Amino acid sequence: MPNWLSNQIMRAFNKRDRRQIRLLNDCWFFYYSRRNSHTDNTNPMQ
Question: Mind telling me which NCBIfam families this protein's record contains (predicted)?
Answer without folding.
Answer: spore_CmpA (NF033225)
